Amino acid sequence: LTIAADACLPETLIIEEAAKMPLVHLERLCRRFSKVLMISSVENYEGTGQGLREKIQDLVSIHKQYQLNHIKRFRAGDPLKQMCDVLSFQACYSHTHSDDAEMVKSLLKAEVRRDFKQDTLSDLILEFYDDHNISALRGDLIKLQTLYHLLNQTHYQTNIQDLRRLFDAPSQVFVLAYDQEQLVGAIWAMKEGGLSPALTDAVFQGLRRPKGNLVAQMLTGQSYFPEAMLQCSVRISRISVIKPLRRLGIGQAMVAFLERKLRDRQDFMSVSFGLTTNLLQFWESMDYQIAHLGFHLDKTTGLHSAVVLKDLACSEKQDWMGEAVRKFQADAALNIQYREYRPEILAILQKKALNGPFDQRDQQVIMAFQQAKRAKHTVENALLRQK
């Protein structure tokens, strides 16, 4: 931006199709004008899509918000619109929680909320799907439609390509939570790792960047730990609960159920998310530990991506996970000195920071930078510890 960072211009800035722009850019623009009007559709194909709706409030204050409920893009009964609605799971969908507002209002009372939480968790029915029984889920179009709409209404990462992944992507894992036969929560996860030593080494050296295996590649190519690609893991990609029933323990119940299903079958669990204090507290409450912080701001959230891990195998081969946590703490001690962060992120790093020595992990990434094609920003902290 060519406008000074400390400027606050008196003009009104109007941003058309705001969801096409990375949220970090929207944040910067909003801080440079006294009034900003953002206009956008959020139908999952614009760029940041649901990120604008779900995450912009984490970055800037929204004073007024309006929503167009009746789209004028097609005339009533348009056959092309009807076909598109069928293909995108929009046709004949009725929201089963029409009394959301009344439910939220009643749950504001502490005693009602406490009793409601106990009843909801005791009545919760959880279903698990992976490659062994995924055909049962994919063969139930009503269940798939309900799942997609839950994700579309509640999770910022949802996009139109999810429809294809729901039907044919391999190595998917799902947990569906039902209360009184209504879908109230879901986890969408995917299997990662179990890759060859040759490919793992190529990623560590910066020579390869294959599709998929997001966290496994992040810990290998951007952090210090190729073990993440060699071992088998499951990464939670989405976790959603309908808004009236949030903070009642449904999310924790789904995660615990998933861990029980995967224990002794996978080495560890991972999650990558836009780092905020509340989200970190949520995962730490279930014994997940932060092991990596992304170098760049995510375009969909405007936040740094954090990686948290939880050991499922509980064996000596998992010693690297404790090492990863300590390495994050050592990096945090340097990051707060040499990088700029938002106050909330800075406070998290200051709390986690713990100086660490130069070690073999540092030496290995420096060699990968000097002798291969590993990116420089992934070794800067190792170079600082070497001094």
Automatic annotation (TrEMBL):
Domain N-acetyltransferase stretches: 134-314
EC annotation from Swiss-Prot or TrEMBL: 2.3.1.-
Enzyme class name: transferase
Keyword entries, A-Z: Acyltransferase, ATP-binding, Nucleotide-binding, Transferase, tRNA processing
Any one GO MF annotation of this record: tRNA cytidine N4-acetyltransferase activity
PROSITE patterns: GNAT
TM annotation in the entry: none
Superkingdom as given in the UniProt entry: Bacteria
Protein name: GNAT family N-acetyltransferase
Organism: Candidatus Ignatzschineria merdigallinarum
